């Protein structure tokens, strides 16, 4: 069977935007393989995925609130994939996907190709492109196992509409099947939660050169000027100092981001930070040190004091948007 399973994600009871990208990649592979696309959606209807290429929508239901944790969900997905004999399974390389996909791969006994930035069906199987060596090089890898499990980097694949008349099925999750020694009793979201840095089209990141958390409103002002698709990010040094939450950390030990536009403000450009953002579409760097490594990956660089440059940038952006 040449069908492809797209594993969608939900956030606060609605379908996550990255799910459209997952469905698009699954659709492209299925078209090349001559198969159909099935989209697995936990917790919500997921009907809109028929607009993004899903021929079948698999609603994952459970009466137990603990079923949302990865262990029982992975057991349900692995059982379904094993029964249906999918050619490939596509996840998102998000925090949720990084928790879920390896569990499914382990249960199926197959490798997992992570952080994929390109995927295509070739005569000898599915070939993917993924960054290696902290993003300094790209490797082309041919998957030899079946099914092929891969997770795609968010914001790399453009979501494309491909409307279908989708058939809806349901599968039940047995929350006790893989208890894992714990039970989820509830979920709490951060108060005033902003757009997640890994999902944003524009990221404004600050480094230790911002001198303290009291100066972050300068960056927040630029983010607000850029609009609703912008989010704040931070370097590891900033998070370690307690200036910003870990959820905003960009880098090898934080989140990997691929926005269309990335601002690196007062960030020197340590290798672990570059690993998390160097595949951004356009990179703008502001730093007082003309020899800072960040300028080596920047498309546009401004040598200057962030406290003088950033307010002027925010003002210029507002003028452009108003005009």
Topology:
Elements: E1 4-7, E2 10-11, E3 14-15, H1 18-33, E4 37-42, E5 56-61, H2 70-84, E6 88-92, H3 95-108, E7 112-116, E8 118-122, E9 125-132, E10 137-142, E11 148-152, E12 167-172, E13 202-206, H4 216-226, E14 230-234, H5 236-240, E15 261-265, H6 271-277, E16 282-287, E17 300-303, H7 306-322
Parallel strand pairs: 1-4, 1-6, 4-5, 5-12, 6-11, 7-11, 13-14, 13-15, 15-16, 16-17
Antiparallel strand pairs: 2-3, 8-9, 9-10
Helix pairs in contact: 2-3, 4-7
Described by strand count, sense and barrel closure, the largest sheet is: 7 strands, parallel
Helix-strand makeup class? alpha/beta
Order of helices and strands: EEEHEEHEHEEEEEEEHEHEHEEH
- The counted number of beta strands is 17
Cα distance spanning the termini: 54 Å
Could you provide a short overview of the structure?
With 323 residues, the protein is α/β, with parallel strands linked by helices. It is 26% helix and 26% strand.
Describe the structure.
There is one protein chain. The chain has helices at 18-33, 70-84, 95-108, 216-226, 236-240, 271-277, 306-322, and strands at 4-7, 10-11, 14-15, 37-42, 56-61, 88-92, 112-116, 118-122, 125-132, 137-142, 148-152, 167-172, 202-206, 230-234, 261-265, 282-287, 300-303. The chain has 323 residues and is of the alpha/beta class. The mean pLDDT is 90.
């Amino acid at each position: 069977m040449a069908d492809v399973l797209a594993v969608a994600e939900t956030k606060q009871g609605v379908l996550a935007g990255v799910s459209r990208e997952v469905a698009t990649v699954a659709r492209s592979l299925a078209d090349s393989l001559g198969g159909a696309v099935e989209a697995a959606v936990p917790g919500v209807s997921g009907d809109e995925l028929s607009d993004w290429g899903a021929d079948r929508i698999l609603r994952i239901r459970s009466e137990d609130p603990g079923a949302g944790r990865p262990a029982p969900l992975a057991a349900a997905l692995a059982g379904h994939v094993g029964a249906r004999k999918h050619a490939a399974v596509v996840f998102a390389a998000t925090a949720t996907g990084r928790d879920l996909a390896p569990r499914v791969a382990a249960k199926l006994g197959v490798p997992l190709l992570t952080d994929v930035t390109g995927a295509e069906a070739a005569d000898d199987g599915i070939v993917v492109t993924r960054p290696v060596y902290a993003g300094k090089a790209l490797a082309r890898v041919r998957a030899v196992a079946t099914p092929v499990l891969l997770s795609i980097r968010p914001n790399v694949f453009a979501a494309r509409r491909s409307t279908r008349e989708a058939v809806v099925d349901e599968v039940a999750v047995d929350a006790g099947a893989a208890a894992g020694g714990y039970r989820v009793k509830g979920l709490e979201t951060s108060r005033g939660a902003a757009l997640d840095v890994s999902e944003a089209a524009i990221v404004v990141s600050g480094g230790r050169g911002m001198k303290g958390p009291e100066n972050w409103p300068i960056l927040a002002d630029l983010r607000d000027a850029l609009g609703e698709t912008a989010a704040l990010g931070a370097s590891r040094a900033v998070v370690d100092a307690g200036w910003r939450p870990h959820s905003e950390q960009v880098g090898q030990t934080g989140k990997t981001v691929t926005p269309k536009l990335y601002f690196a403000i007062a960030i020197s450009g340590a290798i672990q930070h570059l690993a998390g953002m160097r595949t951004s579409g356009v990179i703008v760097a502001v730093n007082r040190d003309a020899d800072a490594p960040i300028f080596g990956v920047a498309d546009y660089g401004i040598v200057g004091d962030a406290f003088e440059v950033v307010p002027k940038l925010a003002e210029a952006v507002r003028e452009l948007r108003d005009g």
